[in-house]
Design brief:
The chain is of the alpha/beta class and about 350 residues long. About 30% of the residues lie in helices and about 20% in strands. It has eleven helices and twelve strands. The protein has a ten-stranded mixed sheet with strand order 3-2-4-7-1-8-12-11-9-10. Strand 9, helix 10 and strand 10 form a beta-alpha-beta unit.
Amino acid sequence: MTGPRTSRYARDVAVVAFAQSDHLRRTDELSEVEMVMPVLHQVLAATGLKAGEIGFTCSGSSDYLAGRAFSFTMTLDGVGAWPPISESHVEMDGAWALYEAWVKIQTGEADTALVYSYGKSSPGSVRDVLTRQLDPYYLAPLWPDSVALAALQAQALVDAGETDEPALAAIAARSRADAGANPHAQLRGAVPQGGYQVRPLRTGDCPPVGDGVAAVVLAASDLARQLCDRPAWITGIDHRIEAHGLGLRDLTDSPSTRIAAQHAGLFDAPVDTAELHAPFSSQEVVLRKALGLGDTVAVNPSGGALAANPMMAAGLIRIGEAAARIHRGASDRAVAHATSGPCLQQNLVAVLEGDTR
């Protein structure tokens, strides 16, 4: 076996294990700690490592969803914080926690990292909660919810001739059909498009609201090969942001995704798999264009965010699903994408490769 085809960083770092919960509409009977613990045990068992052998731990979650400050400290009970561990947290999707952990390994301060993220959207109205991401002076006081803003983006795409409602319905149908092979997905198989949520988006074009957890283990260089038969090497990773004001952006395009992809080396060689964090069917149209994905690329073979969209974990799941395909030999070079904020405001792109065969 040889290493990944390209390497642009000081250290080779790979995803060596991935685990996720079953994503459910409600988990009223479970606390965040009870949700997280089985997934952490599963991902560590896949590597044979114990919690005390992990060099760095980083989590992603949102206090807004939990409804209390510093809520992430509770889930450390599920990790095991004694003896003391090197730990950090980001108030973002777990994909950004993975980025922090990757940087930590690049600096040489750790050789392994445990990254996990979780979200319980079921207790409240996530459509309203997400308005708190908006500009506090001009937009947030109007309370435009996340679906209404996504519908503005979808209508801009329709007006520009880049898609139409039947094409959006086809994206949703393909995603839910592919999710039929994913035992963790919240929605699987034929799901009716239903009526309009906000025109032109129907129920089937929108993500399900639900609860879930994801975790990955990262490892460097030769250690990665000891822990995993076929590591998923992160050969490129970058994240960028659009202007905060929606009126300052062309909603039919995502320059930040394209720039992140360029810096991650996506365009250096073809990919066979793309796991895109597109919570709305219309956003897949934007991301396909920004990433230059052709029809030969398997897009969201896991079903994507249209099949399961646990807030704060769905982006990390995209990286984990892409890595899992490399682990089992179903992919050689994949791109994973994560987003946060309204209308694809913040975007992270990671390129993963398997050892050449």
